[in-house]
Design a protein that fits this description.
This protein has 137 residues and is α+β, with helices and mostly antiparallel strands. 24% of the residues lie in helices and 23% in strands. Strands 3-4-5-6-7 form a five-stranded antiparallel sheet, covered by helices on one side. The N terminus is likely disordered.
Length: 137
């Protein structure tokens, strides 16, 4: 069951995700943790990995590597999805987006998850629809 407040749908049992907007690492950590809810099994440094794709997944040929960057003193967050095995014949091209984090947070530091999810899911869709890098001979 969800409740609607000020045209925003929220889960009554879930606390909003809030961060310190003056802390660069806090912002990146919150965005990375939110991404991991969609497509992750393992986290290693700045990469989130699918070591084995889930059964029935659109990613059935190679694993995925998802990584992110938020350069120091910048508000531009880059999220990248690539094949875990780029040399594989079934590897897909890398996709990424770079966007300002300011569009995903309120002035109080609360993450507007719906906007962020929309962007992340769009990137996942771009990867799923990408053509293979290499053709069969």
């Amino acid at each position: 069951m969800t409740t609607t407040t000020n045209d925003t749908t929220t889960s009554p049992t879930k606390n909003p995700k809030k961060t310190n907007l003056l802390d660069h690492n806090s912002i990146k950590h919150l965005l990375d943790e939110t991404v991991t809810e969609l497509i992750v099994y393992t986290k290693e440094k700045n990469a989130f990995l699918f070591t084995y794709p889930p059964t029935g997944s659109a990613y059935n040929s190679t694993g995925l590597m998802v990584s992110s960057k938020l350069p120091r003193f910048s508000d531009m967050y880059t999220l990248t999805i690539a094949s875990a095995d780029p040399k594989s014949i079934s590897a897909k091209p890398t996709v990424e987006f770079t966007k300002s984090v300011t569009k995903w947070f309120t002035k109080d530091g609360v993450l507007v998850e719906g906007l962020f999810w929309k962007d992340v899911e769009g990137l996942v869709g771009d990867y799923a629809n990408a053509k293979d890098n290499k053709k069969s001979k």
